[in-house]
Amino acid sequence: MEEILSLITLFMNIIHDLIVVVVSKFGFTVNDKMIHFFFIGIIGIISFILIDLIFKSLVKFGVSVLSFIYTFSIIVVVSFVIEIQQKITGAGNMEFADILYGLWGFLLFLFVLILIKLIGRFIFRKLKISKRHS
Predict the structure, then answer these.
(1) Average predicted confidence (pLDDT) for the chain
(2) How would DSSP label each residue in the chain?
(3) What pTM value is reported for the model?
(4) Domain coordinates in residue numbering, the chain
(5) Do 68 and 103 meet the contact criterion of CB atoms below 8 Å apart?
């Protein structure tokens, strides 16, 4: 897990330095706030356009698909935050496997919820059909 975070940090530092060099070649000076403004702004708008297109095509399958994607994204972020917090506070070991187990837990509980809903619908339909015939 630490190796992954180190690689992400290294990658972000390289991008940061590259932006400073490229912008400096055009005669501009930039600070961290300006880099964050443009970099996050551009990543955000590109992500929004792509996600908007994807979600518009997925909504045909129902809002629950979008709910799953959104919830899964939140769970991934929360899992990483918990692991990073464990590293910072020393309250536990920071391991990528912990994140995967947490995600598997979410998927298992989601499967159980879907199963309960399907059983409930099946029972409701059977009761509805039997009331019509009586």
Answers:
(1) 88
(2) -HHHHHHHHHHHHHHHHHHHHHHHHTT----HHHHHHHHHHHHHHHHHHHHHHHHHHHGGG-HHHHHHHHHHHHHHHHHHHHHHHHHHHTSS---HHHHHHHHHHHHHHHHHHHHHHHHHHHHHHHHHHHHHH-
(3) 0.71
(4) 62-134
(5) no
Closest CA to 113 of 55, 73, 67: 67
Using one digit for the tens of pLDDT, what is the confidence trace for 77-94? 999 889 888 888 888 888
Please state, in angstroms and rounded to a whole number, the distance separating the CA atoms of residues 30 and 36. Answer: 10
The alpha carbon dihedral of 80, 84, 89, 90 has a sign of positive
Q: Which residue has the tokens 């994140």?
A: 99
Q: What is the pLDDT of residue 111?
A: 96
